[in-house]
Amino acid sequence: MTDSFQENHIWQTDSTVFAGQTRPENEYLAKAYDFIKSWQSGQTSFGLQTSGSTGSPKVIALTRHQLRSSASMTGRALKLGAGTRALVCLNVEYIAGVMMLVRGMELGWKLTIIPPVSNPLKQITPDISFDFVAMVPMQLSACLDDPETRTGVGRLGKVLLGGAPIGVQLLKQIKSLCIPVYQSYGMTETVSHVALRKLNGTDRVSAYQFLPGVTAGLDERGCLHVSGEMTNGELVQTNDLVEMNSDHEFTWLGRYDNVINSGGVKIILDRLDDEIALVFDALYLKQAYFSWYQEDERLGQKLILFVEGKVDEETAMILINEIRKRVSAYQTPKHVYFVNRFEKTPTNKIDKRRTAAVLFNNFNG
Questions:
Q1: Distance (Å) of CA 149 to CA 12, 85, 126, 139, 183
Q2: Cα–Cα distance list, 123 to 7, 25, 131, 136, 353 (Å)
Q3: What is the pTM of this model?
Q4: Interacting residues of 348 by C-beta distance below 8 A, sequence separation 6+
Q5: What does 188-200 look like in DSSP terms, one character per residue?
Q6: Contacts 24+ apart (CB under 8 A), 128-131
Q7: Which residues of the chain form CATH 3.40.50.12780?
């Protein structure tokens, strides 16, 4: 995601005016135009790229009916009807951005489309307000951290966050906002989000609530599966460990492939990362990090911690000591590896497996 931007790289459209518009000269906006044109022409099948965050990136086929059903569910869940002013600032080559375009055409929204940049508000003049925007956490964080755009967050309307975990500091900032902010749960295979969690306000919740029309259950591992019109009635099995609170909501525990067995003790790395986040916040450490494992003759899988960048030796020792105070001895990393730069997926998520492989290959090579 880049912050390079030129004037007029903004395009406003809706289902009424689109037919009379010409294809934008800007290469990115032209991609959005091409998708909308194919949608308006009645195209029935679309190939969409997965992000690669949980495996190798691949193209999957989704039907018009699936995309339309997903758009309808979002409109009902968030009460976003015809005339909704929506900012499209996510990449339209992936499901999150594509669904903003579909919602616009199907629900009668007025779309303002810009290339995906770190701080979308820098590209929007102060006289434009919105009713809805979907972002990744990094974008909202950039808007709030920049003095020039901080006050402008209030004109974004309802905010939907997805695609990456939400850090402790950002969550604190969200709780003080007067506009509603939601965290989404979903993936390309479920045609964007199938559940939402309200993050602020008096009605904020700790569990995800399924969108209307979603049916869910667990497999023998305790991993979530979902189905509904957005999946053409087919069951989509995930690798997400969850706790079902009812038929309508669940608590996310972590990825099944992010569970390790260290000395006979199972450790859910995603839950451990939530605890470590509190330590990083208390120590004012801004580096990205994640828990992982290293093969070990005695423990089988030895718990380790990856930190992007470098901190001094004293801070590293304090970090481990503070983590030890919050979790058990088994959940305390046995070693901290500092990596100059984490490997990323095409959608800018941390590629944990590849980051670890690069580091250990360098050790062995």
A1: 21, 19, 9, 11, 21
A2: 9, 17, 17, 16, 35
A3: 0.89
A4: 1, 136, 138, 164
A5: GGGTEEEEEEE-S
A6: 128/155, 129/85, 129/155, 129/157, 130/85, 130/86, 130/87, 130/155, 130/156, 130/157, 131/80, 131/84, 131/85, 131/86, 131/157, 131/158
A7: 11-254
- Report the topology of domain 11-254: Rossmann fold (3.40.50)
Angle at the Cα of 52 from the Cα atoms of 46 and 55, rounded to 5 degrees: 115
Residue 227 pLDDT more than 70? Answer: yes
Segment holding 36, helix H or strand E:
helix 27-40
In total, the chain counts a number of residues equal to 365
Quick one: tokens of 218?
A: 């667990």
Half-sphere exposure of 20 (CA within 13 A, CB side): 3
Q: Map tokens 């979790």 to a residue.
A: 327
Tokens for 290, please give them: 């994640």
Instruction: Give DSSP secondary structure letters for 300-365.
Output: EEEEEEEEES---HHHHHHHHHHHHHHS-STTS-S-EEEESS--B-TTS-B-HHHHHHHHHHHHH-
- How many angstroms separate the CA atoms of 292 and 334, rounded? 11
Q: Kindly state which CATH superfamily the domain 263-364 is placed in.
A: ANL, C-terminal domain (3.30.300.30)
Q: Which amino acid is at 276?
A: I
- The Cα–Cα gap between 1 and 37 comes to 25
Q: Give the SS3 label for residue 46.
A: strand
What would the pLDDT profile of 287-331 be if each residue is shown by its tens digit?
A: 999 999 999 999 999 999 999 998 888 888 999 999 999 999 999
One DSSP character per residue, 198-211 reads E-SSTT--SSEEEP
Other C-beta atoms lying within 10 Å of the C-beta of residue 61: 9
Quick check: 174 and 199 in contact, CB under 8 A?
yes
